[in-house]
Structures are given as C-alpha cells and as structure tokens.
Hints:
- The structure holds 2 protein chains of 2 kinds.
- By secondary structure, chain A is of the alpha+beta class.
- Chain A has 6 helices and 7 strands.
- Chain A has a domain at about 1-80: Beta-Lactamase (2-Layer Sandwich).
- Chain A is about 45% helix and about 20% strand.
- By secondary structure, chain B is an alpha+beta fold.
- Chain B contains 52 helices and 15 strands.
- In chain B, helix 29 (about 500-505) packs antiparallel against helix 30.
- Chain B is elongated.
- Classes of the chains: A alpha+beta, B alpha+beta.
- The interface between A and B is large, with 71 and 83 residues.
Amino acid sequence: MIKAILIFNNHGKPRLSKFYEHYTEDTEQQIIRETFHLVSKRDENVCNFLEGGMLIGGSDYKLIYRHYATLYFVFCVDSSESELGILDLIQVKVFVETLDKCFENVCELDLIFHVDKVHNILAEMVMGGMVLETNMNEIITQVDAQNKMEKSEAGIAGAPARAVSAVKNMNLPEMPRNINIGDISIKVPNLPSFK
Amino acid sequence: MALKIVKGSIDRMFDKNLQDLVRGIRNHKEDEAKYISTCIDEIKQELKQDNIAVKANAVCKLTYLQMLGYDVSWAAFNIVEVMSSSKFTYKRIGYLAASQCFHESTDVIMLTTNQIRKDLSSPNQYDTGVALTGLSCFVTPDLARDLANDIMTLMSHTKPYIRKKAVLIMYKVFLKYPESLRPAFPRLKEKLEDPDPGVQSAAVNVICELARRNPKNYLSLAPLFFKLMTSSTNNWVLIKIIKLFGALTPLEPRLGKKLIEPLTNLIHSTSAMSLLYECVNTVIAVLISLSSGMPNHSASIQLCVQKLRILIEDSDQNLKYLGLLAMSKILKTHPKSVQSHKDLILQCLDDKDESIRLRALDLLYGMVSKKNLMEIVKKLMLHVDKAEGTTYRDELLTKIIDICSQSNYQYITNFEWYISILVELTRLEGTRHGHLIASQMLDVAIRVKAIRAFAVAQMATLLDNAHLLTGNMQRNGICEVLYAAAWICGEFSEHLENPMQTLEAMLRPKVATLPGHIQAVYVQNAAKLFATVLKSQEGNTDSTAAQETSQLMIDRLPLFVQSANLEVQERASCILQLVKYIQKLQQKDVEIAEEVNALFAGELNPVAPKAQKKVPVPEGLDLDAWINEPPSESESEDEQPKAIFAKEEPKHSRPRHTEVDEKELARRREARKQEQANNPFYIKASPSSQKVYQDTPGVEHIPVVQIDLSVPLKVPGLPMSDQYVKLEEERRQKERAEKKKKEKKKRKEKRSGRGKKHDSGPESEEDITPAHQVDIVTEEMPENALPSDDDDKDPNDPHKALDIDLDNLVEAAGRRPLADSEKLPVRSHRETPKSPAEDGDTENAALQEPKKKSTKEKREKKKDKDRDRKKSKEEKKKKKHKHEEKEEDLLGGQADAPVVQSEETSEVVAPPTSTNPEVSDLDFWLSNAPVPSNTQEATTVAEAEAAPPPEAASGTAPDSEPDQPQDADTEEAKSSKHKKKKQKKEKEEKEKKKKKKHHHHHHHSDGGGEESVQNGTVEEEEPLPPMSNYCLLAENSYIKMVYDIQGNLQDGSQVVVSVIFENKGDSFLKSMEFNVLDSLNSKLQRPDGSGPHDGLTVPFQLPPGVSNEARFVFTVQSIIMPQKLKGTLTFIVKNEDSSTHEKLDFKLHFTCTSYLITTPCYSDAFAKLLESGDLKGSSVRLEGVNMPFHHLLARICFHHHFSVVERIDSCASMYSRSIQGHHVCLLVKTSGQTVSIDAKCDEPTLLGNVLDEIKQTFSQC
Lengths: 195, 1261
C-alpha cells in the first residue's frame, strides 16, 4: 500500500499532497515538513530510500523519493510494495513521464498552477493507495479522454472564460518555461527499464 | 435561457480561478495569510451563489488551500453539491475535493450514498471512474455496506477501465465492511484470470494485500498464482505474486520446494532488477521456511548471496541498499553464508550514505561471535566518535547495545569490558538514548552478579563526575544514566570502596537540578548508602563518625524536601524524619545500624517485561465486574468535586479514612485470604517457612528462558518487588530456594508494604556466591504464563476482521455456500410491470431494451448475468485445475511410486462430495515435487511418447479452451491408459473405483446435484435437474457406448468425439477396435501410415463392470449441416474358458450443435455484432415448455453450447460461436408456456439446423 504521495519543491513548499489515510490538516503539514527535512538533507548520489519518519508509519514504512531539478517526488509505502518498482513508477515509465507528456515538458510552474490536473493524472495511476495502472499510454489515453469530455462540456459557454484566462496568462512575466526538468530522460544507471 | 448562460459565464470570467488564486498567493509573499483569508471570504461568497460553475470553481480553490494546510471542512456540504453536478467537469472537481478532505467523521458523507450509487451506474464510464476514485479515499463503513453490491456488480462491467477500478476498491470495502469479503471473493478470484492485464493486475494487487495480513486463508490460491507466475509477463503482477509467495511459504514448506525452481529460472533470466530482487527475496523466504539441513538448497543460498553481493557492490546506491536489506534476511537462518562477506559489510559501514550504513549495521548484528564481538564494537565505537548527525549516532549506540545484549549477552565474555563500553557511551553528547544505556547498566548489574563490584566502582565514578554529564541537562537525555548509577550504588552499596564519598556526591546541591524521577532515586539510594555507612561506622566504636553521617543527611535532605516533585518531596521528608530519629537514638548510644540495614535488605531480581500481562486471570474472577456498586450518576456529579475540594489537607483526611475502614479492611482481607486459599493459581503462603519442601506444584512448568526458575510473581494487587529471590542459589539448590520463596510469600502476605524488606537469618548464609562466576540470570515469568505471543497484535488492526476462511467458498457448490445473511445488502426496488408491448417487440428493439430500462433494473439484471457467468467460470476453473493436476500427475507419477500417485489421482477426481477437496487439491498440487516450469510443453512431450497419435492430437489442442468438459476427461483417459500400460494387477481395484466416479461424473445419472451445472444459468434458489450431453451410441449385452461431440476451437475443421465404453457383462473385453465409414465431408483421423479403412484400437481393455472413455478426432469440411456416420466396434470377449469375437454397429450423429463452442461475449460486443447487419435472422416458437426460465436457459447453454450475454426478467440474449467462426445469437423470450427464440447467424443453414435441434431438445422433455 502507498500511504502518501507528496511533491514539494526545494524549499519544502507542497506542490501536491495526496494522503491515502486520513490526517488532520495540521498533521499533514507536519508530515510534509518532516519529510522535507529528511529528504532535503540527503546528498545527491545516495540511495533513494529512507526509513519512514516518525509521523508517517514507523518501521514498516519507507520513503521512496526522487529529486528532479526543483522538485521532490516522495512516495511513502509499506513493505508490500517493491522498492525498485515504486522507483520505476515515479520515473522510468510512469508518473513523471506521464506528467511530461501531459504538460509537454513539465516544469514546476505547471504543477503549481495545475495541481488539479496533476491530481487527475495521479488518480489514473494510483487509487486508494494501490497502484492502478502502470502503462503510461493507457494513463494518457484515459486522461486525454476525460479532458476532451471536459472541453466538450464547456463548449461555447466556456470560450470567454478561456479567453480571459489566456489574457491573464499573457501578462505574466513570471511564466517562463525555463525551469524544465532537464534530466528527465536520463535513466538511472544500471537500472533496466521496468516494463 | 442561452442569454442567462452567457451572462453567467461572463460573470464567471471575473471570478478568481485556481490559477488566479495561486498567482495571487505568489504575489503576496509577505502577507500570505491575510491574502488567503480574504480569498476564503470570497470563496464563501461564491459558494452562496446558485451557479454550479461558480461553486465548482470555489471548491477547486478550496482543494488547493487544503493542500496548504487550511481546514476546509466547513465547505463539506458545498463539495457534495458540486459532486452531484451532472457535468463531468464539476463532478470531478467535487470528487477530488471530497477525496482530499472527507474522512470517516465527516457527517455529510452520509448524504452522498445515493449520489455515488447513481454515479456508479452512470452510462458514462468516466463518471463511474471518478466516483470510484473518490470513494476509494473516503469510504466509510456505512458507504461500504450500502455500496458493496453496486461495486461488486461493476467488477464485471464490460469496460476494463471500470473493472480494474472496481476490483481495486473492493479492498477498501473489505477493510471497512469485512462481511463483504466472503460474497465477493469468488468474483475477485475470477478476475485473476481476466483478459485485461490491468484488471488482472488489480485483482492480484487486492488479493496480495489481503493475503499479506492473513496468509493462511489464501493458501488454496497458490496453484492459481503459480500458474499466473509462470505465464504472466507483466512485471508488476509478477512482483506482487512473488511477494505473495514470500508470505505464503512460511505456512507451507512444500510450496517453497515447488517455487525454488521457477524462481531460480527467473533470477537467471530476468533483466528487470526489481523483479530479480523480489525473486531473491522470496527465495530467501522459501529457504527460511525450509530451514536448514537441506543440502540440495545450498546452491540456492549461494545463488542468492552471490546475487546480493553483486547488488551490494553495485555503484547504484539503491541496489546496494536493497542488497543489504535482503542480506539481513538470509542472516537469520544462514548466518554462515553471510559471515563470509564480512569485509563487504564493514566496508559499507564507511559509506557516505546514511541509509546504507544503517542497513550494514543491521547486518553486523548477526555477524558477531564471541571471538569478534570486541573487535566489531571497537570499530563501531570509532564510528560513534566520527559520526556527525545525532540520528546516526543514536542508531549506532542502540546497535552497539543490541549487538552486545543479543540473546542474553551470549557473545559477551567479559562484562567488565561491556560496562566500560557503556560508561564510554555516556560521554556521547546529545543522545536520546540515556535510558537505554541506563537500563543496560541496571540489567547487567542485577543479572551478572560477579560484575557488581566493578559496576559499582564505575557507577561511583560516574556519580562523582555527574557534573560532566549534566552540562546541558535539559536537552540531554544522558542524565538518565545517573538514575542507574545512583540505584546501583545504593542497592549494591556493600561493594563500594568509599561509600561515604559516594553518599556525599549524591547529596550535592547540584542534584536538585536533575529531573524529578532521578532525584527521587538519588534520595532513596542515599538512604540505602546511609544504612551501609552506618553499619561500617558503628563497628568502629567511633560513634562520632556515625553521628556526623547522620548530620550530613539532616543537613542536605531539606533541599529535597522543598522539591517541587512530589515523589522527591515525600521520600525526602520520610527519610529526613527517619534520620532524625536515628540521630536521637545514636545520641543515646543505641546500636541501630542493624535495624536500619534491615530496611533495605533483600535482593531484587529481574522480571520479564511481559510478566504482568502473562498472569492468567484466575477462574471466576471477572475483571470487568464492579467490585462495589457503581456510584450513581448524581453522586459522582455532586459529591465528588466537593470531596476533592474539602480535602485540602490530605494529611488530615487520610488517617480518618483508614480509621473508618479499618474493620472493613480486616474483613476484606479475611475474605481475600479465603479466596486465595481456594484459588489454584494463587501461590499460597505456608504457615511456616520450614514446612514448604513438599507441595510445590507447577514449579517445573514455568516458562523461564534458560534457568529453571521458580518464583511466582506478580500476584495482582501486591508490588512485585516483594517477590525477589536469590536466583543463583535457586539454580544450584532448588529446594532451599523454594523454601525461601514460601517465606517470601508469607511475608508478602503479611505486609503489603512496598520496596525493601527485612531479610531473615537463613538467607545471609546463602549469600555466599562463587567469586568470579558470571551468571546471567534470566527474567522471571509468572506461573502458568500463557506461551502465546499474541500480545504484540494490535486489537484495532482492521485486518483482523478480514481473517475469514475463504476455502469452502472457492469450491462453490455443496459445502457451506453463502448463507443468506452473508449476501450483500441490495436495495430492494419496485418491480415495474412489464408492458405487453415489449413482449412483442422486434428482436433488435428488445436487445436494446437494457439501455432503456431503469438503472435499477439494469443493475438487477447485471447481477443475474454476473452470477451466471461466475458460475460457469467457476466450473471451468475447476476443470482446468484438475486438468493441470493430471498433467503433473503424469509426470510425477511415471517415475516413482505409481501406486501412491494413482491413489491421489482418484482422490482428486472424486466429485466434491469428499471431505475437503480444495485442501486435498492443494495437497495434491503440492505433493508433486519440483515440476518443470513449462508444464504444458513437457506434458505434450510425454504424451507423444506414451500415446498413440489420435490421443496426442486431441491432447495438444484443447488447452486454451478449458471450458469443454471433455478436457479433463481426455486427461483422465490418458492417465488411466497410462496405468493400463503398467498392467499392474493391484491397481485395478482403484481404477475401477475411479472409473465409476468418473462415469457418474459425466452421466449425472445418480443425481449428483452439484455436478449438474456445466455452463448455464443457475439460480441459487432452485437446483437444476441433472443434465448430460452424452447420448447413447449403441448397446448390446456386452458393452454400452455413449458419446458426446465437441468442437475444437484451435482447428476449425476438427471435432472430438468422446466415447465412454462401459462393460456391462462379466467378461473381460479386449482388443477393441473402433472404425467408421468416412463420408466425403467427415473423416476419422487415423494415425499416419494406416489405410483409410483401418479401425482405431481403443487404447484400453475393460474388466467387468468398468467403463472408460476414449476420444476420436474427426475432420469435417462443412459444418452447416448435421450428418450421420456409420461405424463398427469390434472386440474380443474373454471369459475364463473361452474368448469370442464380437461386433457392434453404431451410427454417429454429428449435430450442428456439436460444432458450436461456448464462447463468452460481453453485451457491448454483442450489440455491435447485431448492429453490424451481417447476420441473417430466423425464429422459432416452442409451445408447452413447462420449466422455469433459468432452467430453460441452462439447458440451451448446456446442450447447445451457448452462453448468456444478458438476461432481463423473462428475456435473455445468448451467444455462441461455431468452430469455423460463425456467430450465433439468440434472443430467448418466454411468456407462459410459450418460448420464442429469435436468432441471428451469418450462416442461415447452420442456424436453421441449430434451431431445429433446440426445438428437439425441448420437445423431448
């Protein structure tokens, strides 16, 4: 079981938090902080597993994380999940690459402004703490189909709103797309692709 | 209207959307909180509007704020509103918000039940999907109960997208509503073989989760998983299955044996590290379960260790980490194989990665021996000095202590060394583990007698230098060791060289800055020291020294009397008064040292931490019963607070209290004694300490670790410290010890005072212990302690409720089917009376009907369909299962012990009336030692060698079409044929038995009710009459032949005729030859090299009364017409004296039905097929059919190889396929006794013939 999926940036600002068990908002923030502290002080080039923090789980739980440019992707899982499997799930075939496909060169800003979309993608991959689908193409198909449906529902009525938001985005000096996650396609050495 | 919409959306443009909110927050970095609070106000305004779009937008923003840590539960109702929007866009927003912030105590959740149900049955798969996803996050017991049935229905949805989600969410439903597990399990199991890999993976996922917690219930699924493991190519699924096997093997070592080979193959072949790693892990689990002593597995261990070494040496830190992790598992059972890699592990200790160092530390734990312990600890101590982070240092510290103290200090040869290590560890700054060191010190000092003198000396130094430890005491856990030091110095003060100095050190004013509980120990132990000092000083005849000591106490103690800590205060003031009194006596030159010492006499023994829990509750004692009448509500409300405030001076109230109760207490004490006397568990005090030698029942049964200890401890209500005994003497001189124990008990009876007590004379003489013997005293456990270790289990674990036996469920019919109470709650609904018009509808319209019907009905209908499908699958699976076993049987049985094998075979073949087929199946499956992973292939090879060609042909083909009942039969025939070949007389008896069963199996003539369901729709309430497809071929006084024809899906031109030969007479039948006159269209397949008119030898002989089955393959050209073939069976009848040649003519009737193959079809595919327009229609009416509709369907399914696609009330659509790929669709409707069948097929002639045959079937009954 996956207990939680967290994405936060290099400063510990949450970009996505999905808990598959109930915690109060305060505890959730504490967990995010604690996890950030655990993860952020680790060097690059150390292993991607961490014994779970105090708040989340205890000894049966592990934090499995990956660090991309400005973002940390952290999965908190128990012993029924395969460590390398989850690691691959984050990167090689699934999560980050799906985000990359859906957002076309994903960067932190995409996640900041479209956290709902990230949630929707995640929902096609993990459900209720269990891995639902590991096939990236299948995930993208389903996400696209749903987005298409959303667009068709908005129809003409949605057009002005879209226009306005496009205009809003235009005066955005802070929307550069230069914070790309450059190394996204670099595979982990000696880790043959998972599927 | 349109204007309104446009207006609404124009309004909306100027609302903040999520992006605006995020942008705003980023622009207000300084006053973020303030900005957000204004945003929340806006959101509240937006939520008040009617426009659902505005609301959804607001909820979307709330979801974001929730992530930032804002409580948004106040908007729960609005979230529900958005969830129930009909637009997918808003619905999705609503469900996302709900999944982020709803939980079990959200009260509006109960409003969602109907909405969710509606969404679940929505025609739009994404509505359903979004509802399932949301539900998976906030499902409550109520929701689980109410929706379990709906979700279960979705598990058979036509769309794999919905199926996989429904399957996955079932796990959550099980957790919240454990009653649903049994009813849902068969379908869940069925999904393991779903055609869609995603659904399959989800089902594996769920079962693995379930099995991880309660593995034993899922042991029977092992064969199925084994098959999946050898066939699946999805690494996710493989990993899950392999992990599951890791959990199952400890329960069933035979399973492990079976697994080793395929796993080893995977290890060698896979390129995916994740899979390799899990394989290694499971192999390790297998090896552990097999335990040692299996020489042939040492290769596997070596393989694992070697693979792990490769992982550990890898430059990838992740692999290194996991390698170490797995290595630690091997360590437990095969320490030797790991120990050879000590170099590698010590090297990992120097790794820059903390996680890796920690794992390496774990491994060290198992690598120590008496020889290398000191060396390893030395190395660790170096690391302690070098370590930077406190966490890692703390971890090192605990590991050092773990390593040293493991298995009762097994590896420590020199305790002085260990004590010094502990003392060295106290120098660590900022460690959190002061209490751990302290408890080790206490433990060692108490349990290792020989070390006490040394320990006391070290502790005295520690106390002297306490200021070094307490430098920044508030943050420093290390001062805990002073607790231990003070206690050790006090308790074993006789070993102190200079007690006076230590006493002074303990009474320094600085002590008052220590935490309260430590001060309390200081005060108490100062008193003990004082007693010791007094004793030594009184011997000196110099009374002034003694008086000075008293004066020291009197001077210093007031500091503690003023302590804010009650414990310290109380102890200090007691002791102060005592010392003052002593001083008075001293001034009168009274010798008091002896008496003061008596205060603290007696020794304390270690008690197992769980000892108290393990005391069994005496019979007749109800711990939950009130001792006194419970105080009434009003009393507790009114009087208690008053009493509390009235008792402002506790000193006054306390004596009064005892006065009042004095008599009552005496009476109670008496009663208690009585009770204790009658209580077999209570250790009674004997009237005299001398008289205890005999009667010591139960002493031997005390589960003490190593030393035969005999002290019953912890009698409820009495402090445990009263019961200590000298363990060492006890070990050597048991009887004397027992006597002592009795004494103690007696004392304990007499006074319930705490702590220390007088030691009587006899003990002092026993105090003499051998000087330098190191005795490790084990911890004590109470008498009758329960051996179970279940106290570690959390009673609140939700998985406990899921510990449900599923085996008899799996085996479907017969034994303990689902009770009515176990069925999932279904919403009852009103039956809408069917309109007469519908009845006469054209076929197409009727087929569209389901879509028009209300959702409720649809659900109902689906359920029926599902049940049908489930049934048939179940049946299929059973067959398949047996089929497999057969194959293995062939392989395993051939080589050795054929007799045993055949016995087992008959057991498996027996219909499920035998006691526990599932279990025996599993046993059987397991009893076959290592099987080549590629069973199929091997079987074929074996067959080809053993059997004549026709059989081989029929054997290879039908594998993928296991729903043909004959499959199992082929195998049976083969196996029996096989045995025939062996020609063993002693086997005949068994075979006979087996064949009889087998006969019934197919004829159902004896009313074997549970076997009657082959393929059809069965409603649980009414059992179907037994059915058989076998019909009579020919019969005379010697032999009877019945036959059935089945198509072969693999080859569109082949059909297989299974003929059962039954010997009716008392003669032996042999040399049977089966021959058929071929027609242009149909030919009997003969082995190569034989002429076109040669007969086929039936590959067995028939003793009297025995039947057996043979199969013959025919090639057919056209299948659209039925036809008949003439044939002859010739055989030799052998009596005791004579033998005659006989022949029997027969006519084989190839019906069109026999070219059809049961093929499941989903309703959407079915609908498409009908819409395609390629099919030509025809119809037939049957009058006077007098049977329930489901029987009717079952018959069509069974006799004519159809499957039900959908069924609505008295209308059902059915589907079948011919071996040449013709689609045959039926719409069966019934009203009264009339059944109308509308049919469509791409080959009208075939259809006409099939319909005629159906008609004939029903005219016969």
